[in-house]
């Protein structure tokens, strides 16, 4: 067991198919190092941003990754002898590294190609930001989208405005993004109208608070054209909060006194809810 440079605790295990196909024990020494207990449900996330929801089960023999663990084993697949590193974010997610796995070796080329393609500005087909004709009185930020050629009018705007007013009585800037599909979601772009209009600054990492108050680690990617995108989180949001197609996801940006945004609070509005 050890600690990374950003003080997130980690441990390592070697995978043995005869003993670890259905569950994997978390070392006692690692658990003693934690300041609070691991929640009953966590996410295991690899370097490709693939995620597996897993249940934590405690028995007289120790604490285990169990429900959902076998899905990770079969997805890679793990065959035996793989060295596995688990880095805990302190809340509800473990970043995993399996350097000698079949998946890691097989996907090195494909991964490097997709990273090169990601540097180019592209339209995000699974994302749609809502554009309002008028800024809302109750929130400084209003709802801004990526372009200005589209607006949402009529009763939908009124209902959405009222529900956002109820959710966000503060003056913090925010935007709404609409999920056209939840499959393969990788990032969400922060509208430039908000980022530049409020002079917001971002580091490489950001904390994201989901509707249940759980904190997650996200990353900020900056494209060549200057766009800022929130990454490394959205699959967790969908899995833990039942995000469905056409749901509106509200992202409230919480700036510090220096206008650096280190926290984003997320709320979800289902279109069929009054």
Radius of gyration equals: 20 Å
Instruction: Give me the strand/helix succession.
Output: EEHEHEEEHEEHEHEEHEEEHEE
**Biggest sheet layout:** 8 strands, mixed
Q: End-to-end distance, in Å?
A: 49 Å
Stretches with pLDDT under 50, minimum 5 residues:
1-5, 104-158
Subcellular location: Nucleus
Protein name: TF-B3 domain-containing protein
InterPro entries: B3_DNA-bd, DNA-bd_pseudobarrel_sf, Plant_B3_domain
Keywords: DNA-binding, Nucleus, Transcription, Transcription regulation
Task: Tell me the layout of helices and strands.
Layout (H helix, E strand, L loop, with lengths): L1 E2 L5 E6 L2 H4 L3 E3 L1 H6 L7 E5 L5 E9 L2 E4 L3 H7 L7 E6 L4 E5 L4 H17 L8 E3 L25 H13 L6 E6 L7 E4 L1 H6 L3 E9 L5 E8 L5 E4 L2 H8 L6 E8 L4 E10 L5
Parallel strand pairs: 4-8, 12-16
Antiparallel strand pairs: 1-2, 2-7, 3-6, 4-5, 5-6, 7-8, 9-10, 10-15, 11-14, 12-13, 13-14, 15-16
3D architecture notes:
- There is one protein chain.
- By secondary structure, the chain is α+β, with helices and mostly antiparallel strands.
- It has 2 domains: 2-105, At1g16640 B3 domain, CATH 2.40.330.10; 127-269, At1g16640 B3 domain.
- Helix content is 22%, strand content 34%.
- The strands form 2 sheets. An 8-stranded mixed β-sheet has the order 1-2-7-8-4-5-6-3.
- The radius of gyration is 20 Å and the shape is elongated.
Descriptive terms for the model:
alpha+beta; eight-stranded mixed sheet; 34% strand; elongated; disordered N terminus
Summarize the structure.
InterPro entries: B3_DNA-bd, DNA-bd_pseudobarrel_sf, Plant_B3_domain. The protein is of the alpha+beta class and 274 residues long.
């Amino acid at each position: 067991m050890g600690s990374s440079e950003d003080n997130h605790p980690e441990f390592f295990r070697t995978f043995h198919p005869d003993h670890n196909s259905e569950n994997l024990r978390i070392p006692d020494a690692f658990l003693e190092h934690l300041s609070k207990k691991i929640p009953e449900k966590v996410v295991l996330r690899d370097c490709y941003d693939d995620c597996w929801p897993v249940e934590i089960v405690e028995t007289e023999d120790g604490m285990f990754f169990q429900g959902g663990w076998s899905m990770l084993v079969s997805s890679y697949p793990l065959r035996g002898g793989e060295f596995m590193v688990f880095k805990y974010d302190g809340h509800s997610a473990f970043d995993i590294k399996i350097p000698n796995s079949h998946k890691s070796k097989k996907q090195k080329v494909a991964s490097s190609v997709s990273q090169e393609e990601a540097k180019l500005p592209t339209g995000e087909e699974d994302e749609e930001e809502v554009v309002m004709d008028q800024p809302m009185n109750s929130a400084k930020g209003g709802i801004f989208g990526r372009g200005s050629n589209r607006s949402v009018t009529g009763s939908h705007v009124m209902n959405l405005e009222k529900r956002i007013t109820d959710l966000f009585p503060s003056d913090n800037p925010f935007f709404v993004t609409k999920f056209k599909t939840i499959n393969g979601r990788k990032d969400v772009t922060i509208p430039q109208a908000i980022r530049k209009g409020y002079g917001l600054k971002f580091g490489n990492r950001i904390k994201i608070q989901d509707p249940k108050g759980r904190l997650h680690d996200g990353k900020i990617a900056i494209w060549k054209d200057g766009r800022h995108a929130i990454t490394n989180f959205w699959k967790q949001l969908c899995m833990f909060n039942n995000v469905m197609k056409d749901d509106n996801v509200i992202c409230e940006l919480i700036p510090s006194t220096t206008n650096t945004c280190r926290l984003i609070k997320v709320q979800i509005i289902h279109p069929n809810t009054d």
